[in-house]
Design brief:
Blueprint (H helix, E strand, L loop, with lengths): L2 H8 L14 E6 L6 H27 L2 H26 L7 H8 L3 H15 L7 E11 L2 E12 H39 L4 H29 L3 E2 L4 H28 L1 H25 L14 H21 L20 H25 L9 H26 L10 H9 L37
Parallel strand pairs: 1-3, 2-4
Antiparallel strand pairs: 2-3
Helix pairs in contact: 2-3, 2-5, 2-6, 2-7, 3-6, 4-5, 5-6, 6-7, 6-8, 6-10, 7-8, 8-9, 8-11, 8-12, 9-10, 11-12
Length: 462
């Protein structure tokens, strides 16, 4: 190890060099900078959805469908404006002299210029040696178990900038998916059923919206895992991604289809159903906050007053409610915590959510079946209803498979799916305790088993 590098590390007050035998392995090497695939993919989805919506609005304009055109424009502009504000806020552009970037955001082209910036940073990375800006300490997970000693990586300027870009686009992907793509998909599917024909532009917009929603839900699941196991270097396997895509895709598709079918039979009642869902999930974190008699978290943003903090919390709660209306958010909000996320998720909430959601979907499908219009005489309604129920059940099945076999930290979970199901079947009987099982030990008592190879990517795209 180079002596100059050793001295530079020892000068950092929050990180001191610790010998390997004391439990830490000092890693003095700049990790390989990975391409910003998530940034490019989120930008492609944003542009594709915007272009498809613009083409469809021009068709609505020519045909005189003012209502469809107005709603389509609303569902594409509202999330777009929120996306620009999010990117500007995360990159702190208002306090910097960047007129071109701000102008691109005013033109709703902020994701494009941000994507170009990320690609430029990636292309310039590694051409010359750069000083590190921070050090990160992680433990590696292998086959769901914590192995090896904690390791420390130097984070250079290029890596830091790309990490900021990735984090920003993950948040904008969630906003775009559940504040724009989800209502857009619902609207276009409802319009297609009401007009009894499917335009090519409308079909393209529906497909892009469905991909955007599935990706946004996937990002939610990965972010929940990364937040919960922040001390570990989490790596998702291809099987885990496949399970999550099938789980999220089936869950969201059946939910949207159920709401649309119900709205075609009982148009005004769907407003009551959707509004009740939205209000319940919006006020749930606030009710828990008031029950705990907690105070607002400090330092959410240094320049924010109490009013500004409350506005931010309301926007976060609104996004949380919109996600839960259509699918499981994978996180629970804790407005009293600085991170705003409950670090100890409970199986009971997950089971309660999917049980009630399954019952609600079943009731909506039954009401649609009894009050459906004459249009569905040309469709096998019983078969369609059974398909929706089966597809939602398959989505729940893939979720259980993910948590049981594909979760990257499944050995750190105190009780897995199999044990929870066994407890339910045994009416509260305690699961068998297996001596020495890591999943039954607290996180701070998990001891490393052996040294492992150093993985050089400290952050990965969702």
């Amino acid at each position: 190890m180079d002596e100059a590098v050793e001295n530079s590390i020892s000068e950092i007050p929050q990180v001191s060099p610790v010998p390997a035998e004391n439990g830490f392995v000092m890693v003095i090497s700049h990790s390989k900078v990975h391409p910003p695939f998530s940034v490019v993919w989120a930008t492609v989805l944003y542009c594709a959805e915007f272009i498809c919506a613009a083409v469809l609005c021009s068709m609505y304009d020519r045909s005189g469908d003012v209502i469809w055109m107005g709603l389509t424009i609303t569902f594409i502009l509202v999330p777009s404006v929120l996306t620009q504000l999010t990117l500007t806020f995360i990159h702190r552009d208002l306090g910097r002299d960047r007129p071109l970037v701000l102008f691109m955001h005013l033109l709703q082209m902020g994701p494009i210029i941000r994507c170009v910036e990320a690609l430029v940073v990636y292309c310039k990375a590694g051409r010359e040696e750069e000083p590190y800006v921070t050090i990160t300490r992680k433990r590696k997970l292998k086959k769901g178990k914590a192995v090896g000693s904690p390791m420390e990586w130097e984070i250079g300027h290029s890596e830091r900038k790309l990490t900021v870009h990735r984090d920003a686009f993950k948040r904008t992907a969630v906003i775009q998916a559940f504040l724009g793509s989800t209502p857009q998909l619902t609207l276009q599917l409802y319009a297609a059923i009401q007009e009894k024909y499917l335009l090519p532009a409308r079909l393209a917009l529906m497909v892009v919206s469905l991909i955007s929603i599935t990706y946004g839900a996937l990002v939610c699941s990965v972010l929940a895992i990364q937040i919960r196991y922040d001390d570990y270097k989490v790596r998702m396997s291809p099987a885990a991604y496949l399970c999550m895509v099938l789980w999220r895709g089936l869950e969201i598709t059946t939910r949207v289809t159920t709401l649309v079918l119900f709205s075609t039979a009982l148009t005004f009642w769907v407003i009551l159903v959707g509004g009740a869902n939205l209000l319940f999930f919006f006020f749930q974190p606030w009710v828990e906050f008031w029950v705990r008699r907690a105070s607002l978290p400090e330092n959410v943003e240094k320049n924010f007053s109490k009013v500004g903090t409350s506005v931010v919390l309301c926007m976060v709660t609104l996004l949380y409610a919109c996600i839960n209306v259509f699918c499981w958010s994978a996180v629970q909000l804790n407005l009293a915590d600085h991170d705003l996320i409950e670090k100890q998720p409970r199986w009971s909430r997950l089971a309660t959510y999917y049980t009630l959601r399954f019952v609600e979907n079943l009731a909506l499908i039954a009401l649609w079946y009894f009050f459906k219009s004459d249009f569905y005489e040309y469709v096998c309604a019983p078969l369609l209803a059974v398909q929706l129920v089966v597809c939602y059940g398959l989505g729940v099945l893939f979720m259980l498979l993910f948590y049981q076999f594909c979760h990257p930290a499944r050995k750190l979970i105190k009780h897995n799916v199999e044990e929870c199901l066994r407890c339910m079947c045994c009416r509260g009987k305690a699961p068998p305790q297996r001596a020495g099982d890591p999943m039954l030990l607290p996180r701070d008592q998990l001891l490393p088993e052996r040294e492992v190879d150093i993985v050089d990517d400290f952050t990965e795209a969702a």
